[in-house]
Design a protein that fits this description.
Blueprint (H helix, E strand, L loop, with lengths): L2 E5 L2 H11 L3 E5 L5 E2 L7 E2 L5 E2 L2 E2 L4 H12 L3 E4 L5 H13 L17 H9 L6 H28 L10 H17 L4 E10 L7 E8 L2 E2 L5 H11 L4 E13 L7 H12 L3 H13 L1 E3 L3 E3 L14 H15 L33 H4 L5 H17 L4 E12 L2 E12 L28 E13 L8 H10 L8 H10 L3 E4 L2 E4 L1 H13 L6 H15 L5 H22 L10 E6 L6 E7 L2 E5 L9 E2 L3 E6 L6 E6 L5 E5 L8 E2 L2 E6 L6 E5 L2 E4 L7 E3 L5
Parallel strand pairs: 1-2, 1-7
Antiparallel strand pairs: 3-6, 4-5, 8-9, 8-16, 9-10, 9-15, 11-14, 11-16, 12-13, 14-15, 17-18, 19-20, 20-21, 21-22, 23-24, 24-25, 25-26, 27-28, 28-29, 29-30
Helix pairs in contact: 3-5, 5-16, 5-17, 6-14, 6-15, 8-13, 9-12
Amino acid sequence: MSNLVIVESPAKAKTIQKYLGKGYEVVASMGHVRDLPKSTLGVNVEDNFKPKYINIRGKEELIRKLKAEAKKSDKVYLATDPDREGEAISWHLAHLLKLDVNEANRVTFNEITKSGVQNGMEHPRAINQQLVDAQQARRVLDRLVGYKISPFLWRKIKGGLSAGRVQSVAVRLIVDREEEIRKFQSEEYWTIDAKLLAKGSKKAFDAKLHSRKGEKVEIKNKEQADEILEELKACEFVVSAVKKSVRRKTPAPPFTTSTLQQEASRRLGFQARRTMKAAQELYEGIDVEGLGAVGLITYMRTDSLRISAEAQQQASAYIEGTYGKNYLPPSPRTFKSKSNAQDAHEAIRPTTVELTPQKIKESLTGDQFKLYKMIWERFIASQMANALLDTVSADITAGDCLFKASGYTVRFDGYTVLYEESKEESDEPSGALPPLEVGSPLRVKSLAGNQHFTQPPPRYTEASLIKTLEENGIGRPSTYAPTITTILARDYVEREGKALKPTALGEITTKVMEEQFAQIVDVDFTAKMEKSLDSVELGKTDWVKVLKNFYKDFSVTLEQAEKNMDGTRIKVPDEETDVICEKCGRKMVIKNGRFGKFLACPGFPECRNTKKIVTETGGLCPKCGKRIIAKRSKTGKQFFGCEGYPDCNFMTWDTPLTDRCPKCGSTLFRKGKVIHCLKEGCGYERSAKEGA
């Protein structure tokens, strides 16, 4: 007897083959085998939006092999990923291989472990048509939006543009934020900050002016600050109230796809695509020394916070054995998923708690290790006891003025002994206050007025954009990474450090979309559309009905947009730079070409001067003395090289600094925690903590 099991990837096939053994042949479909054609719409709008699927070009040989394997097998199991997309791939495979879609031949694995695979194989089911319809509805809807609006944008702005149901909203969010930043009017304000000493204490603590004559203080300029400071010179600072309490800090829940991408961005500096690549590898199976291929995490596309009882027991046993019973909560901790979460899978967690990050470090790549460590620690911490903080807040009176000070000490570290969630910003007071008693006087070490200016809202980062998309119900866990990749690739958005900034093209395109296709870039409309698509998955709504309701208004909007912009073509303004064209004296502009951005003279065609965009570092080459410029490898990784290449071949991964070597005067470089000189024969180095 021979059984054929079809999965998506060779890595997953290898791991599952190990657990199934003889009698089973596990092969990979390499993702989708059928899809809508690229050259045409591929959707018959008149015939209930019937999709016209074709075999994907380049997969002819693979399809022949799958058909041959299926023909000689007694039973075919479809074991693609346990989500909407995976269900659709299985459905397409069933049609391609002429399998009965009502037969119990669909198996799913929440984790690629021995028990996970056995459990999946023991519970085969028929293909879930509701999941397939939900995927088809999304695919057709995205095709209608993309293939109807994109040609319009080509004609009205420039060729190669694209619109998308989720991507256009994501760009709008980034554009709207940039507009907020531009319109922001910074306002001056001042604070009065004191450093005070308690009796018998040598360490000063911080206190901030809170109110004056019973009213909250708002100091708008230096004159007002100086007036208060003058008044305070004659005042005695006295402790008027002390409040002590215990604060409980609760651990963050295990990861969902969204929170994994956010935390990996903040903590590891990973882009969403990089996070999902490493997560996919950890799920599908890694060759671990002594164990062979094993799936290390549960399925990585999920918005559920549910955890199995078995996983909780594993975590509890590990925590008690490693940290002691007092690090366990009174009862196993559970977390409530959001109301719109699809609860088909658990949260992202390690499949085997005993496989600690350090135990398997040698079997993992750098990215896999960093991500696995974060997932493992977050999950274990989520099952640990609260941290307890002894907090102290003090009111300090000085004449008519009230100052406030606060601090804390850790009574019990709890889960924080292992892991704490990172945050974009934190203004939480830290450190302990000295022992303070009501009525006791304080000595003023320093008292100063400090000038501040209100800050505009920050640009989105990948982490904050994903969080906003999720909070607004736009897209689903599987769409965040490809959406960000697309808007960057289409040049609607660019990176500035970690921040996402709209390009002139992104702003122009969004303006046209807002004027002509307001619903497509409307956050609320997109969220409602997402809910309608979810209701298809739940079997509450017919997928064709959802598409009909959408297309009725959409086709009218499309027709009207053509009339509104008949004969109009919008020019995308070039981004001017400070680089002067040495041939004609004009300021050069940034253009986009086949190989990325470059500098061009705006005097084209009279002046055809072009240049590479050079990112200066402030460093000088230790070999020839020319400028060191930032460059990128074929894989996109930044390195630094001499502008004199190929005559000078100096290059390094170490970051050039503006500091000069005290020994030889050459540029210094930073490598991790070490600052060193790369001048041949010099050898100077110091710790980065030592300063200049």
